[in-house]
Amino acid sequence: MGWSEKDIPSQHGKRVIVTGTGGLGFQAARALTAKGADVVLAGRNPDKGTKALARIRAITPDAKITFERLDLASLASVSAFAGRMSDDGRPLDLLINNAGVAIVPKRQETQDGFELQIGTNHIGHFALTMRLMPLLLKARAPRVVSLSSNMHKRGTINFDDLQLARKYSPAGAYGQSKLATLMFALELDTQMKQQGLPVISAAAHPGIARTDLMNNGPAGQPVLQAVSHLIERIVGQSAAEGALPLLRAATDPAVRGGEYFGPAGCTEAKGAPELVQASPKAKDAAARRRLWQVSVRLTGTEMPIPA
Ligand SMILES: NC(=O)c1ccc[n+]([C@@H]2O[C@H](COP(=O)([O-])OP(=O)(O)OC[C@H]3O[C@@H](n4cnc5c(N)ncnc54)[C@H](OP(=O)(O)O)[C@@H]3O)[C@@H](O)[C@H]2O)c1
Hints:
The protein has 307 residues and is α/β, with parallel strands linked by helices.
């Protein structure tokens, strides 16, 4: 039998932030509150957040969960959110960098002028992680989990045109953003270990999971959406199953940092969560350091030096 939600150890006493109120973020929050975690579900749409909380409370009536507004496509919103989270100074045990957009048909920009997919999926989460680092460093065994995708294997980091202003393709932009997410997760873990700091960083991908991802990103593209939903139905898995790799990365006591979990089935589309391979591009240490430096420059955030 593969790893399942039953294997999640007690999360009582843990403070968790999950980005993204729908799909996998919802499932992660549901599973973690059921195990006693105190969860902040962070998203850009308060109506969706309120509905997600009601659904979770219907399953776990004493769930410790709140909604907080966070728009990852705005560095000001990321900064304001992190400021609110830091108000009471409570340690943060687990940050799940999950929210994302995919296959946006025409090039769009975040509030700060970044291409929308890398801006939301990577740059927003980079800034969020840096801003929450002081709270993570206060926790006993802090973890950061970042959501990548099988599509990272088709991605390339276009250092000469990171915002894809010269040449944009919806899948190319998504692949770049998810490669960046995985490189960030691995580089964060490397830097923590080099500095002797306790935060461990791991990554996960859900395979093909039936969520709203292909309704949200390619809005107004009915043919693409119909094909995606067909593929999801034929070779994919439920959102709850798709959340298992991230839940394993987040809670398995055997995780030491630097792991990448995904479904164990054929082509990693579905199945129980196991360790999977990051692409050679994701493991390129020099490229990871370069992306880190670019991200520091673009966000104006960097790793805080612990007191
Ligand atoms: N489903 C899959 O097959 C699949 C495959 C590979 C990787 N992934 C990754 O899994 C993660 C979760 O996606 P999902 O499948 O659960 O899709 P989803 O159902 O569309 O959920 C994505 C969530 O991200 C939120 N979000 C998007 N932009 C945001 C922003 N600027 N600020 C804050 N929140 C924002 C969405 O908010 P709204 O509800 O307001 O739109 C939504 O709650 C993503 O990183 C995705 O790339 C998914």
